[in-house]
Amino acid sequence: MKGLVSSPVPRIPELLHRTLFRTFSLLGPRAQGKVLHRYFDWWHRRPDPWSLATDSYERRKYRATLDQLPEGTYARILEVGCAEGVFTQMLAMTWPDAGITGLDVSERALGRARERASGDGARVRFVHADLLGYEERDRYDLVFCAETLYYIGRGDRLRRASERLRSLLAPGGVLVLVHPWPEAERLHGFIDGSPTVTKLAERVERDASRPYAVSVYRAGAGPSRPQMTSAVS
Fold it and tell me: What is the pLDDT of residues 199-216, one digit of tens each?
């Protein structure tokens, strides 16, 4: 995928944001978890702080993500980092018979997510936990992890988070990762190098200032080569 898209210079707020979370990743796992919980609760002191429900860029990204999915029946779906449940609501509308779980570190965000999903009954639930601390015996047919892995940190933590995502997949389950490009090459690297999943597709979208990659994997090794596309939003 290298060379398919240009890489604009990151904006100053984004550089500061990422520097902040690189600093957080130096903390121990428990301390980092507490800091992230407080940080995101602070951000969600007002509704929808990132305009996920109204921003046209976010809506295009959601649609591009769903367009990359292979056809199939997904009875159990997990969204890691669901925030206030905007994308969760889209998942509930797309798969009206699926059981859906949203996972996030902010209790404030989850409170609004539950209100948003109040009409979907018990099939949509939300859990207050981070990825590494989430305890779930069941496995999922479809797992989404978007704009989340750069909060985990580097090295061993990113490796453990990637292993956790793989472990949440049922046999034949599909994993979808969505992160900024070209940083996605690093963030998705442990999944790309895993012999236990097959990469089905990768799409790189170019936006005026925020390019991103959608990478799709299936649990289980396979000989097929992934479909790679580059598009302009």
Answer: 999 999 876 468 999 999
Residue 81's CATH number = 3.40.50.150
Looking at the 3D structure of the chain, how many domains does it have? 1
Q: What's the pLDDT at 207?
A: 67
Query: How far is it, in rounded angstroms, from Cα 53 to Cα 201?
Result: 26
Burial group, residue 29, by CB count within 10 angstroms (0-12, 13-18, 19+): middle
Inter-residue contact 146 to 177 (CB < 8 Å): yes
Entry pTM: 0.82
Domain contains 116: yes
149: containing domain: 12-232
Token pair, residue 25, equals 């990743």
